[in-house]
Write a structure and sequence with these properties.
Layout lengths: L2 H18 L1 E6 L7 E3 L7 E5 L3 H5 L10 E6 H14 L3 E4 L8 E3 L1 H9 L1
Parallel strand pairs: 3-5
Antiparallel strand pairs: 1-4, 2-3, 5-6
């Protein structure tokens, strides 16, 4: 992805999340969520998030077919998830798609974008 594409994806994601006041992850019955390895950074985990239930649900296939979309309120994301992922040196992956591509961003970077 080019810098322009990354910026555009981030802006779109932030706008949609602000409108809905929530993000979507893929959760399992045992309470787990989908995390994958970073495409950009060595030894970094990425928690995948989507800006809509439809986009999240579209990824519930293949190795993630047992998962279902789960909503995370924006306040919960900012108050709990950002700090936890920051401590774990993990990243957020925004709107993972069928090409296995997404914008990877540090938790504090996403928090700043959502709060600006």
């Amino acid at each position: 992805m080019s810098e322009i594409e990354i910026e555009s994806e981030l802006v779109t994601f932030v706008e949609q999340v602000r409108l809905g006041a929530q993000v979507w992850a893929l959760g399992s019955e045992d309470g787990g969520v989908v995390v994958c390895e970073s495409n950009q950074f060595e030894n970094a985990d990425v928690l995948l998030l989507w800006d809509s239930e439809e986009k999240a649900k579209a990824q519930c296939k293949d190795e993630w077919q047992e998962y279902t979309p789960m909503a995370i309120d924006l306040d919960e994301l900012l108050d709990e998830w950002v700090e936890d992922l920051n401590e774990d040196q993990a990243l957020f992956g925004l709107n993972w798609n069928d090409e296995n591509v997404c914008v990877e961003i540090e938790p504090t970077g996403l928090a700043r974008a959502l709060c600006d």
